[in-house]
Amino acid sequence: MRDLWRFLTLMRPRIGWVLTGILTSLLTTATGIVLLGMVGGLVVGGTLVGGAAIAGLVLRGLAVLRGGGRYAEKLSTHQATFRVIADLRVWFFDRAIPLAPAKLGGVRAGDLLSRMVSDIDALDGLYQQILVPTTVALVLAIPVGLILADVAPYVAWLALGALVIAAIVIPAIAEACGRSAGREQLGRTAELRTATVDQIQGLADLLANQAEDRHRAKIGTIERAREMAGLRAAVVAAVSAAGSQALGQGTVVLVVVLGALAIQAGQTDLQSVGIAAFVVLAAFEAVAPLPFAYQMLGRTRAAARRILQIADADPAVVDPANKQPMPSTTTLELSGIGFRYPGADRPVLDRIDLTIKSGERVALVGPSGSGKSTLLSLILRFHDPDSGTVTLGGVDLRALSLADLHGRIGMLAQTSPILAGTLRANLAIADPEASDARMREVLIACGLKRFLDGLPSGLDTWLGETGARVSGGQARRIALARVMLKDAPILLLDEPTEGLDADTERALIETLRPLVEGRTVLIISHRPAAATLAQRVVRMEAGRLAASSAPDSDPAGTPGSPA
Amino acid sequence: MALTLGLGYASGLVAVAQAWMIAGLIAALIAGDGLDAALIWMAAIAVLVRVALGAASDVAGVRTGQKVTAAVRADVLAALSALGPSWLTERRSGEVVSTVIEQTDAVEGFVSRYLPAQKLSSAIPLTLLAVVLLLDWRTGLILVGFGIAVPVAMGVVGWRTAARARGQMTAMRRMSGYFLDRLQNLTTLKLFGAEGRERAEMRQVSDDFRERTMSVLRLAFLSSTTLELLAGLAIATVAVTLIAGSTTGDTGERGLIFVILLVPELFLPLRRLGQFYHDKAAAVGAAEAILEILDAAESVVPPESGPIVAADEAPALSVEDLFLAYEGGGRVAVDTVSFSVAPGEMVALVGESGSGKSSILDILAGFRVGWSGQVRIEGRAFDPAQVRPISARAGQAPRILAGTLAENLRLGRPEATEADLWHALEAVRLAEFARGLPEQLDTQVGDGGRGLSGGEARRVGLARAIVRDAKLVLLDEPTSNLDSRSEAGVLAGIDALRPGRTVIIATHSRAVMDRADRIITLHQGRIAAPDTGAADA
């Protein structure tokens, strides 16, 4: 329940809409009760004060009022709900960002999407189906009780008792019975989404391995499990709704019978009984949606938990409370670094000491798995080291703001993530204000002139998701162009020339040579040509730094810069 | 569906009996005749029977809806497979995922709620109207008047719903596509400090979806309100008219109350229809995206299945005049390329990035549509998709599926033994890595290869091809992104794979070229130096 309370407090910025929804719902339901009460009095009593003509006018007026009220209620409660939900999506995104990449490793992107789309959607019932009708039921219980007490106190207590059962007991039972079905529905939906993302993004591998129909069968199995959970939920909803309905109609009959007895005893008159019967009818109509809503509560709570799992996760690194100003120099110093991934049995980095002076270019070489990329992730402060310190310009990274730190670093990662969007949108991530001319200049500097000339719509050409419409080499160079556009004083290059043929590699190295000049650079590469960009080569073996040397002589014949 | 309708209709009929009994009770009460115990019990039983029938009808409706939904989803997934990877690369996968999940789910509400409500909204009111007409024709005529207003009002409200619902579903797909892409690239966004801008974009995309949803709901609410209003007015009018008429005494007391009780029942199915109107709107909106996929797949001619060449020997392969232009752009990716590969031969396709190597391999794997030319195996022309039973492929970015490492390795041959898997891992030098995993082969991996580095994922992809043990092997840059030590391991893997197989490799690697029997160099989609004899250069 505490989880749901959190989400109620998150509604505070939309309090205006939230209260409007509750108020219109209250007024509309009250109008409905008065309307039916009058009908009851009219039917049984024969006339009302002022005669049938006026009564007819009042009745029609109330009917119109109730209709309009119902419309206003639906509009305002839905406005409130959807505004809150849009807020929650942005809030969730805000919460997820600090977790990347260290804390999101175990969560599949498809699953994350499920949390952000369907789990947040599942919270829509919280306000609209639970908070609003529950409040209305509680508030209206008193006037309804007073009207009923007019017949006889015991009729009032009896009808109120039945209402309590319909509004509280049956919903509580529905909630208990629907809980596991709801949770399972949600979990299966996330599974279905993960498998569907695999099916769509992995279709090439599935087809080539003739595994496509098997994977579809797997999706079918998940679908059937989800159906069964859905059916269980539907049975709980139908039975509890039927129970509440039967109770309502039974109570009406009972009120009539007891009313008759009260009339015989001379305690009340016919008209009061008629009014009471119809008021009970209207009151039950008001609580009718509650069993269904509470049956969904299990699902809503499971959704809330899944959302909070991400939103409340502790990031691996946090901004310091007292941020130090950014140092003016860019000397990177790693001293005594030890690091072990959570759950791993041995450290990936062990007593690493490495200094990259401001303006120095260092190449880090070594077999894969030796810890090179981990070292980069410590410089980016994706993780904090278990022991030792990483400093920039003499200041511990842990004392700097993450945004400031990342603002100083241009990082070319091993994968070249191309966002679904145009070439321009991909470059604008680095610098939203960059002019077309500047973008072209950088693209050409990264060896993409012919690619750019061949694009049907130039910078506005759609690149396709994960760069599906560009080749591996082109994607890498677009990613490089993005880094260059950022124009940061520190460059981290993780295998910058992988996937490029020898000629292109040579050309790219020559393109990079002036670009890396004057910056503080750390290059990870096993290719001799890339290492020639560095002034110093450091070898890494199994988490330890080995020898440091001048770059090997370049096979292409370009002399390496002296160390 | 018939069950849902039958139960729903029966529930409506029981309502008539129930109203008759309650009317009897009230009439006796008014007349001061006291209570008839039998009538009370019968009324109670009618109540129970009625709600039970209603509940059963609801559940039966849900089951029908689920079945239809599952069938639609299966059709959509099958259509996506028929369309293939090249069709999907033109789209955001998050949008397609949304079509497969949310939009297909919209079918369930339509089938389980809206359709039965629609059918019952004419059957039950008409039946009840007949009863009322028999008892009191004037009230009947009033109801006929209101009844005629119903479809008119619905039509006026509904005429713009379809367009708005499509807008809503488009916004939903856009949102899903955008979210998935950004969630997959959180780290990149963070590195470039683009969170703030993406946040604004996210707010805008979410708000757009909210506004479009509300624009549909406004219409849906209008229709349900109109129906509620008509129902309310009808009840009030009938009540007032009857009370006025009752003084003339031409309807019995019980008949009068009966008719008044029947009027809300008569409008109940119509009110339900109004409540479920948004289910229809959602389905109409979703239909567009679903049909786009199903229609597109219609034009794909499924390859003839049936026996192709024997799968136990390395086949000869030749291509003639392969030609492929990128969709829309007019840029030519593969320009009249012809070459042949002898059984057991290993051919390297080389050329600068974007020269068409990968496109040729994609055509051979059956992933491309809209190409022309011929692919021949042992001299016979085939649709490349037909060649899949005898071929294996490892691409530039193998997808590691959600599941265990073993499941991923067995993708192409589910019956492979554990020894086969270790052999393949050994060949790509991942055995040590796998032995270091917490649950070895049973370790969960997946979702974009998270948990595995790019190089590890690449080698798992190659190991998959080794496990598959097919006689025609297509490899797309198997060694890029590997350090030299691992590259040597992969090369050993290729050496192990090679005997008795026909291999086509797209590569930049000198070491791979050195191993090839022949090199075909591509330049801007054409063969630059056809059939260079030697592998060295």
Explain the overall architecture.
The complex is a heterodimer of chains A (563) and B (537). With 563 residues, chain A is α/β, with parallel strands linked by helices. Chain A folds into 2 domains: 2-311, Up-down Bundle (ABC transporter transmembrane region fold); 332-549, 3-Layer(aba) Sandwich (Rossmann fold), CATH 3.40.50.300. Chain A has 19 helices and 10 strands. Chain A has helices at residues 2-10, 15-45, 51-96, 109-122, 124-149, 153-201, 203-208, 212-264, 270-287, 290-295, 297-311, 372-379, 402-408, 423-428, 436-445, 449-454, 472-486, 502-516, 528-531, and strands at residues 332-339, 349-356, 361-365, 387-392, 395-396, 409-412, 490-494, 520-524, 536-541, 544-549. In chain A, helix 18 links the parallel strand 7 (490-494) and strand 8. The two termini of chain A are 63 Å apart. The model of chain B is unreliable at 531-537 (pLDDT under 50). In chain B, helix 1 (2-31) packs antiparallel against helix 8 (253-275), helix 3 (93-135) packs antiparallel against helix 5 (161-184) and helix 3 (93-135) crosses helix 9. Chain B contains 17 helices and 12 strands. At the A-B interface, helix 2, helix 3, helix 4, helix 6 and helix 7 of A face helix 1, helix 2, helix 3, helix 5 and helix 6 of B.
